Amino acid sequence: MPSVVSKFLDKSEKAFSKNQSLLSTAVIGTALAAYAYKIGYPLVESLIFKPNRESDSLNNNLVKPNGIKSAANGEVKSATKKPNGVVQTHGDPKTNSAISKRNRLMTGIPNFNLAFILQFIKLVRIMIPSILCAETALLSGHTIFLFLRTFLSIYVANLEGAIVKFIVRKDPNNFVKQLMKWFAVAVPATFINSMIRYLESRIALRFRTRLVEHSYKLYFKNQSYYRVTVLDGRLDNCAQRLTDDIETVASTVSHLYGQITKPCFDILLMAIALANLVKSRNSNLLIGPVIISGVVVVSALVLRLVSPRFGQLVAQEAEKKGYLRHVHGRIVSNAEEIAFYNGHKVEQSHLRSAFRILTQHLEHMFAVKLWFVMLEQFLMKYVWSGTGMIVVSLPVFLPQVIRQVRPKKTISFTSPKQITASQAEPSTSQNSEISEPEDSVSERTHYFTTAKNLLLTGSNAVERLMSSYKDIVELAGHTARVANMFSVLEEASNGIYHKTVVAKKETIGDFEVEFNGDQPVAKGKVFAATHNEIILKNVPIVTPNCDVVCPSLSVNLKSGQHLLITGPNGCGKSSLFRILSGLWPVYGGELTTPRNSMFYIPQRPYMVIGNLRDQIIYPDTYADMINKQITETDLRKIMQMVHLEHILERDTFHEIKDWTDILSGGEKQRMAVARLFYHKPKYALLDECTSAVSIDVESNIYQTAIDMGITLLTITHRPTLWKFHTHILQFDGQGYWEFSELNCTSRMDLKKEKDELLLKPNSDEKTQRLKEINKELGEDDV
Ligand SMILES: Nc1ncnc2c1ncn2[C@@H]1O[C@H](COP(=O)(O)OP(=O)(O)OP(=O)(O)O)[C@@H](O)[C@H]1O
């Protein structure tokens, strides 16, 4: 069998021997052509198609959460989107325009450019707020250790040179001495290395803490967390930016500091050490550095030219990761509903699709990186090493060349020390004749090993500096996302919103939102109530999409006048609460509210992380409760008022549990009412907040609230609650409304008549009468 194979190989070798060189040339040529195409084509493409690409990618970024994105390719399908993102603004126009202008300067495709520098400076100011802070102290310590590390590298390079020299010289005594030194150096060297890593992690954590604190401050300022999700459409996934992106920025900046500082020290000190070494060999000081600098500069230019847009790629990756996390989050928070529906197929397909988008992007990134890294490695590993070898050989070969040209003049390879020694003892010429060749070889080995080590450290330093460029461009991607989040949060807290708006409905009434350029102006005036009154004078109800739901609403309500709000679905009842609470801008008219004396209870009650006590006192803390001199006995009474005493029989006030899952729908609603009784506000905005509570308990609750002196503004479809109200605001669903005193008896009669009519067989007369009654009751006409 082996003979058969060898014969076959023999034959094939003969067959291919003629074409072998041709074949190799073809393979190398094809590889080079493919490489040149891969590197060259994107360059040509970017030069020719650059403007279109940039605008495309910007558009894609703008429309994210509001436009509907196709799952597979991330294209926007929003058919009727406005050409410009509409900006909604309230607050001081001068400040707003200054903030917008500054923020506009800082946007664009993430790369190593002016926008990145501005964004980075902004983040650095947050991460290092002053010269005298913990971060500067840590950075100084880090710098000192990096510097010490470089010194040690030079010392070790020399030591290794000496060790090799004594091996070549066959001098065991000196070899052992140098080896002992080498082991002794290992102790501080390992300590310094560990300290460098420790300080890098500490700095990263400090930076992260600063950024997180700053972002939380902005996130919770003027309800920005609500505004950026509902009123503004620029932040696709705030959670991803607040967690992952901030963490990446902090760790990358901390890492880059060492990555750039250490090589700078290395290059500087290695250059000095190498210069001394070259000087000691009486060689030319200029040739080596000129050759090295030339090669490094050319390599850097080539890499800069062919470098893909890592910043943009990294920003897109973060965006896609954020989307995947968002889909996961939705499943976690709606697990029960999905399980009831058996909707796992749909949810799984959403997850898969989100994951596929991410993997497709990562594959694209890996492919782009492959070609770049190949070129990078070729230049840095092979071209530089070759150059290093040439430079190291120069002091060895050049004197030989010179000696051949000028044979009479002798240049020895001995060290300066030996030169002086040989000059001082001319009589020992016979000895030196024997020992000189051995000494000369060991000295040359010493020189070569030291120079090689120094050059290696130096070239590693330059390599790290150059690959830092890639890291900086990647950092630009994350920086852009974090800085952009800060800008949007800042603007949102100042009332500046950008949102892609879908086509408007027909204008209702004579109110139209006024635009300044592409910015709708919130012209309404808001006053703080002096006597706990609520007054709306010609206030329009306008949605974040700039749809006018009600053109002009006027209501005058005093404390003690309980208001019932009715109307068909989508007529603007909850929106009125949003305007009263200051969540939505006031686009016209005048609004007077006692904002701090109002307490809102939604239909879907929110359960906070914490124990049972925390559920009742929210948004107060335990310290607030103590300050208000409210005891657990008082809380127990409140629990009895809302008929939740049975929970106290099985649970204590102090156990932390997931109350969203533990409590039933009705129990959660009653818990929300318990909050109302704890806070005892002047006004309660009740948005169908007892729809899951039994009618008799609900009546009890309403009576208790009135007895406590709380004025009720209630949205409800239950006639049993009418009797607790004195006034009625009835919307007709067409933008019109009626505000009057509530005549409960006549309303009840109408309701009774409607119920009786519904039991009768269908007829034109019945339909006509039902229409009239529904209009009067402000109910949906079916
Ligand atoms: N965040 C939003 N962005 C855009 N439009 C919104 C937003 N919230 C509500 N709307 C729209 O505003 C209109 C009024 O909504 P609102 O919630 O006030 O209705 P509602 O009268 O409370 O209805 P329901 O009785 O069904 O609760 C609706 O057409 C709704 O689609």
Helix content: 55-70%
Query: From the alpha-carbon coordinates, what is the Rg to the nearest angstrom?
Result: 39 Å
Mean model confidence by pLDDT: 79
Low-confidence stretches: 1-13, 49-95, 102-106, 407-436
Number of helices: 24
| Number of DSSP E strands | 14
* Bound small molecules, deduplicated: adenosine-5'-triphosphate
Can you list the strand order of the major beta sheet?
10-11-12-8-13-14
Supply the helix-strand structural class: alpha/beta
GO molecular function, one term: ABC-type transporter activity
Main location: membrane
Subcellular location: Peroxisome membrane
Membrane topology: Multi-pass membrane protein
Give structural notes.
This protein has 782 residues and is of the alpha/beta class. It contains 24 helices and 14 strands. The protein has helices at 2-17, 20-62, 93-105, 114-127, 134-168, 172-219, 224-230, 238-280, 287-306, 310-333, 335-341, 344-405, 416-424, 429-493, 573-580, 612-617, 622-627, 632-641, 645-650, 659-662, 665-679, 695-707, 744-759, 764-777, and strands at 86-89, 496-499, 515-516, 519-520, 525-528, 534-542, 548-557, 563-566, 590-593, 598-601, 683-687, 711-715, 727-731, 737-741. The strands form four sheets. Strands 10-11-12-8-13-14 form a six-stranded mixed β-sheet, sandwiched between helices. Strand 11 (683-687), helix 22 and strand 12 (711-715) form a beta-alpha-beta unit. The N and C termini lie far apart (91 Å). The model is unreliable at 1-13, 49-95, 102-106 and 407-436 (pLDDT under 50). Bound molecules: adenosine-5'-triphosphate. Residues 230, 543-545, 549, 567, 569-575 line the site of adenosine-5'-triphosphate.
